[in-house]
Specification:
elongated, binds thiamine diphosphate, alpha/beta, 24 helices, 5-stranded parallel beta sheet
Length: 669
C-alpha cells in the first residue's frame, strides 16, 4: 500500500468521526473500521462514473448496514459525485443529501435505501438476479455488455436477520456469481459483543448455502482485502462472501473494539485523540488533505474513461445486434411496446362467475406474452395464486432466460429481491403469495414505497371467503395495514373484468408498488352493459349503478372485491322496497384520492350522507368515505374455519344485512 492510501483511509475515518460529532448523532465506529475496505472498493475495484451515477454498465454497491453510511458518503464526496464537503457537514440534517441512512433517489450514487438490517443483503441478491437475466438476454460473444458485479458490505446484524438467510440460500441455489459480499466481522453490536447472541459458524453456514467463502484476518490489510475481492470476482458460478475481521472505531484510543463506538458520537475529546493518533491537526474539523482529494478525484475521473469504453462497446453492439439493443433501450426506459394490452381478456357476464385470482392469471398470461420486461413468481404458491406464466420457463442456475421465479417459501426475501430487480432498469417484477403472508414481507414493501419503485404484489386468498383454512389464513387487518403505507397502491377488484383493469393500472403505474388483492372463491362477473364499465377502475371508485327509475339516489352502497356483487343484489332488493340506492365499486382508495374534487363529488356527493361501506376486512378507515352518518359492515375480529359462504353469512356479509342496515340508516324499518 502506498503512503497516500493510508492517509486517504485515515481521512475517511476522521471525516466519519467529525460528521457524527457535528450531527451529535450517528454511527462513527463502523465506518472507521471499514475505511480500508471502502478504500479498496472505491479505488481499486468498483467500476463507476461519478458524473453519471446511473450508467447501465456500472458495478452496484450496496451498504447493507446502512447505519454506517458516513463511509459511503465520504467516498461519494471524495471521488467526485455531486456531494460536497458541506453535505458531509450537514449529515443527518433537514433536507440534506446525507440522511441518517442512505436513501435511493436522494443522494447520487446510492443504489438502494438501506437501514433495516438484512434488507440490503437481499436487495443485492435481486440485483444479481437481474444482472444474470440481462447477461443471459443481451451478452454476446465479444460483447459482455452486462458483465458487472454487485458488491455489498454487510454486518453482524445483517447476518443475524432472517431475511439474509433466505436470500443467501436462494442466491447459492441459483449460483448468482456476480455477488461479492464483504462481511464486516467486527463482533460488536449495540448491546456489546456478538458473543451475547451470535456465535454460529458463518463461514460454514455460507458454504452450506453454496457460497464461495474466504476470510481475511486483518481488516487493515489492504492487499489481502484486494486479493480476496479479486478472487471473489473470479468466481462466476457461486456468490462470494469475504469475512473480514475488523475493529469497530479503529483509531479511537478509548473506544475502539467496544460497543461505545457503535451508535453515538465519540465525544469531542475522543475525536481529538483520534486525530492525534492519525497525525491530523486535533484543532481542525472536516480536514481533507488536498493530495487525498486529488488522489480520489483522479480515480473518479478514470470512471469517465471506463464508461466511455463501455459506451463504445454498446455502440458496436447496437450496430451488430440492433434489435436486442432496441429491446434493452425500450425496457430500460420502461417503454411498454405499443400493443401490450391489445389481447387482454374480456369476460362475459356470469352469475356463477370466476375467482379473481383466476382472471388475474389470464390477464398476466396475456401481458407477459407481449412484455419481456415482466418477470416474477411466487413464494411456492404459483398454482394457488395463478401466477405461472405458461411457456416462459423457470429462471434457474442454468436458465437465465426463464421468466418465472421460484422464490421458495421465502416471502421476506421475495419482497427484498423484487426491490433489487426493480432497482435495475429494464424490469417490471411481480411476486405472489396469500394476502395473509404479506405480513411476512412488510419490511421490503415499505422500503419499495419509500423508494417509489414499482414491484407488483399479487395477493390472493383475500378474506374469510377463502374458507376452511381457517383463522390463521384469513386476513382481517391486512387491507387497512397496507392502505396505511404511503405510496403503496392497493387494488381490490370486484370481478374478473376489474381484475384485468387492475393489471393495466399496475403495469403503467409509476411511483410506488402496487398490490393487487384477489379472491380464492368465485365471484359473479358483472354485466358491463347493464352496469358501468370496469375500465372506470382507474378512477379508484366509480358509480357502478344508480337507481333504475332515474331517481336521485338517497343512499350510497360502496365496497370492494368480493362484496361488490352483494351491493348490486342489495340495490335490487331495496328498489323493490322503494329505496333508491347508488352502488359504488371502490377497488382502490389511493386511486380515488388522486382524482379531482369534481369527480369525487360526483361519485360521493356531499348531499348524500347516508352511506354504507361493505368489505370483509377491518372496518378501520372506511369512515373517511362513509362519513359520520354512515355505517361500515366490516370484520373486526378473526374468522373461523368453515366453508367461505357460511362464514360470509355468519359474519353479516349478506344481502339481508345490507338491506336491513340501509333501512335502519334511512329510518324506514
Ligand atoms: C431490522 C433492524 N433491527 C434493528 C436495527 C437497529 N440497529 C441498528 S445498528 C444495530 C446493531 C448492528 O450491529 P452490527 O450489525 O454488528 O453493526 P456494527 O456494530 O458493526 O455497526 C441495530 C440493532 C436496525 N437497523 N434494523
Amino acid at each position: 500500500m502506498e503512503k497516500i492510501e493510508q492517509l486517504a483511509i485515515n481521512t475517511v475515518r476522521i471525516l466519519a468521526a467529525d460528521a457524527v460529532q457535528k450531527a451529535n448523532s450517528g454511527h462513527p465506529g463502523t465506518p472507521m473500521g471499514l475505511a480500508p475496505i471502502g478504500h479498496v472498493l472505491w479505488s481499486r475495484i468498483l467500476n463507476y462514473n461519478p458524473k453519471d451515477p446511473n450508467w447501465a454498465g456500472r458495478d452496484r454497491f450496496v451498504l447493507s448496514c446502512g447505519h454506517a453510511c458516513m463511509l459511503q458518503y465520504a467516498y461519494l464526496f471524495l471521488t467526485g459525485y455531486d456531494i460536497q464537503l458541506d453535505d458531509i457537514k450537514n449529515f443527518r440534517q433537514l433536507h440534506s443529501k446525507t440522511p441518517g441512512h442512505p436513501e435511493f433517489g436522494l443522494t447520487p450514487g446510492i443504489e438502494v435505501t438501506t437501514g433495516p438490517l438484512g434488507q440490503g443483503f437481499a436487495n443485492g441478491v435481486g440485483m444479481g438476479i437481474a444482472q444474470k437475466i440481462l447477461a443471459g438476454r443481451f451478452n454476446k460473444q465479444g460483447f459482455p455488455v452486462f458483465d458487472y458485479n454487485i458488491y455489498a458490505i454487510c454486518s453482524d446484524g445483517d447476518l443475524m436477520e432472517g431475511v439474509s438467510a433466505e436470500a443467501a440460500s436462494l442466491a447459492g441455489h441459483l449460483g448468482i456469481g456476480s455477488l461479492v459480499y464483504i462481511y464486516d466481522n467486527n463482533k460488536i453490536t449495540i448491546e456489546g459483543s456478538t458473543q451475547l447472541a451470535f456465535d454460529e459458524d458463518v463461514a460454514g453456514r455460507f458454504r452450506s448455502y453454496g457460497w464461495h467463502v474466504q476470510t481475511v484476518d486483518d481488516g487493515n490489510d489492504v492487499e489481502a482485502i484486494s486479493a480476496a475481492i479479486m478472487e471473489g470476482k473470479k468466481e462466476l458460478n457461486r456468490p462470494s462472501l469475504i469475512i473480514v475481521r475488523t475493529i469497530i472505531g479503529y483509531g479511537s484510543p478509548d473506544k475502539e473494539g467496544t460497543a461505545e463506538a457503535h451508535g453515538a458520537p465519540l465525544g469531542t475529546e475522543e475525536v481529538r485523540k483520534v486525530k492525534e493518533a492519525f497525525g491530523f491537526n486535533p484543532e481542525a474539523s472536516f480536514e481533507v488533505p488536498s493530495d487525498v482529494l486529488a488522489y480520489y478525484q483522479e480515480i473518479g475521473n478514470e470512471g469517465m474513461e471506463k464508461q466511455q469504453i463501455w459506451d463504445e462497446l454498446w455502440q458496436r453492439y447496437s450496430q451488430k445486434y440492433p434489435e436486442l439493443a432496441e429491446q434493452y433501450v425500450n425496457a430500460a426506459g420502461a417503454e411498454l411496446s405499443g400493443n401490450w394490452d391489445i389481447d387482454l381478456p374480456v369476460f362475459e357476464p356470469d352469475s356463477k362467475g370466476m375467482a379473481t385470482r383466476k382472471a388475474s392469471g389470464k390477464a398476466l398470461a396475456s401481458i407477459a406474452s407481449y412484455l419481456p420486461l415482466l418477470v416474477g413468481g411466487a413464494a411456492d404458491l404459483s398454482p394457488s395464486t395463478n401466477t405461472t406464466m405458461e411457456g416462459l420457463g423457470s429462471f434457474s442456475r442454468e436458465n437465465p432466460l426463464g421468466r418465472n421465479f421460484h422464490f421458495g417459501i421465502r416471502e421476506h426475501a421475495m419482497g427484498a429481491i423484487l426491490n433489487g430487480i426493480s432497482l435495475t432498469k429494464g424490469f417490471i417484477a411481480f411476486g405472489a403469495t396469500f394476502l395473509i403472508f404479506s405480513d411476512y414481507m412488510r419490511p421490503p414493501m415499505r422500503l419499495a414505497a419509500i423508494m417509489k419503485i414499482r414491484p407488483i404484489y399479487v395477493f390472493t386468498h383475500d378474506s374469510i371467503g377463502l374458507g376452511e383454512d381457517g383463522t390463521t389464513h384469513q386476513p382481517v387487518e391486512q387491507l387497512i395495514g397496507l392502505r396505511s403505507v404511503p405510496n403503496l397502491m392497493l387494488i381490490r377488484p370486484a370481478d374478473a373484468n376489474e381484475t384485468v383493469q387492475a393489471w393495466k393500472v399496475a403495469i403503467t403505474h409509476n411511483g410506488g408498488p402496487v398490490a393487487i388483492i384477489l379472491t380464492r372463491q368465485a365471484v359473479p362477473i358483472i354485466d358491463q352493459k347493464q352496469y358501468n364499465s370496469a375500465s372506470c377502475l382507474k378512477r379508484g371508485a366509480y358509480i357502478l349503478s344508480d337507481p333504475a327509475n332515474g331517481n336521485k339516489p338517497e343512499i350510497i352502497l360502496m365496497g370492494s372485491g368480493s362484496e361488490v356483487h352483494l351491493l348490486l343484489e342489495a340495490q335490487a332488493e331495496m328498489f323493490k322496497l322503494g329505496i333508491w340506492a347508488r352502488v359504488v365499486s371502490f377497488p382502490s382508495w389511493e386511486l380515488f384520492d388522486q382524482q379531482e374534487q369534481a369527480y369525487k363529488e360526483k361519485v360521493l356527493p356531499v348531499g348524500i350522507r347516508k352511506r354504507i361501506a361493505v368489505e370483509a376486512g377491518s372496518s378501520i378507515g372506511w369512515h373517511k368515505y362513509v362519513c359520520d352518518a354512515g355505517v361500515v359492515i366490516g370484520l373486526n375480529h378473526f374468522g373461523e374455519s368453515a366453508p367461505g359462504e357460511i362464514l360470509m353469512d355468519e359474519f353479516g356479509f349478506t344481502v339481508e344485512n345490507v338491506v336491513q342496515t340501509a333501512k335502519l340508516l334511512i329510518g324506514r324499518v
